[in-house]
Amino acid sequence: MTSAPSSRARPARPTTRRHHVTEVRPLTALDGRPLTLVHVRGRHPPTRGPVLLVHGAGVRAEIFRPPSPRTLVDALIDEGWDVWLLNWRASIDLDPTPWTLDQAAAYDHPAAVAHVLAATGADRLKAVVHCQGSTSFTMAAAAGLLPEVDTVVSNAVSLHPVIPRLSTFKIGRLAPVISRVTPYISPAWGDRPRGLVPWLLVQGVRATHPECRNRVCRMVSFTYGSGWPALWSHAHLDDATHDWVRGEFAEVPMTFFAQMDRCVRAGHLVTTGAVPGLPPSLTGQAPRTDARFVLLAGQDNRCFLADSQRRTHDFLRRHRPGRDSLHVLPGYGHLDVFLGRRAARDTFPLILEELAR
């Protein structure tokens, strides 16, 4: 991975979490579901337009603000961007609900984009989206529901989910069994297994995931991938962040795993057919968006393989050659692209450069 540093002068004192001025705004999705937007400002007014950050499944907007000396939010603020973080219906800050990607695409992301544009007076915005925030956001963009978005930086997966063989077994065979006894699964059960089903799952994970003493970290790997661990390299996380993740994962509904299983079997995102305004397949036609896509893929990702983003890049290139870009990040996995102890040096400059293009 190579990237040129931004041409903008760095502030004399870089932004850190203690400089953040955070405002949580209520937001109503287009189907009436309550969401929130988190507006984060620094010491100075923004000099660039809005950037919307969208988290993955079973986490929350705070996933972009780990206890690191420098986070992506800090870096964006120092580059002059107006930073907004979305808690969509998958957020653990909201009441759990059996959501689908379709609902997020049709109801959550268009509402968030409209709110940010109205609040800032901008007519366009950029987005940094991760995992199922990325699949659902890309689904909305490809369906023509986000015409105001001009740049999408997508991490891990977008239109073509490709997962390890063990994950294929878990999502296709094990998840349907689990869904018969519980509507949700939660990595937080590692610390708080309330009930017989959570306790039994925790015991199974304890027996098969000996890679660390953090019980939530081990449950995360069982829930979301096929690695030991699955979403990051332990070498990439400092001790504070590894401990912090204990409070950053909670319920994810089995409805999501059922839809993702169908997508994996199809080789691309497919909709449930229950939400109007979305095509059955997101790859059966050219994407209905002018947004430029920047696809990031951790070479060592054990949640969604790097081929996920390679296939989406090939699809985009067939329809509009030369417009979109792909960056495979050596040594990185899934979430350590944002949480890694060296992410401020290795991955943030690339994100900033692409946003500034």
UniProtKB/TrEMBL annotation:
GO terms for molecular function: hydrolase activity. InterPro entries: AB_hydrolase_1, AB_hydrolase_fold, Cholesterol_Oxidase. It holds the Pfam family Abhydrolase_1. Gene3D superfamilies: alpha/beta hydrolase. Its cofactor is FAD. It comes from the Bacteria. Transmembrane segments: none annotated. Keywords: FAD, Flavoprotein, Hydrolase, Oxidoreductase. SUPFAM superfamilies: alpha/beta-Hydrolases. Residues 50-157 form the AB hydrolase-1 domain. Belongs to the GMC oxidoreductase family. This is Alpha/beta fold hydrolase. It comes from Streptomyces fragilis.
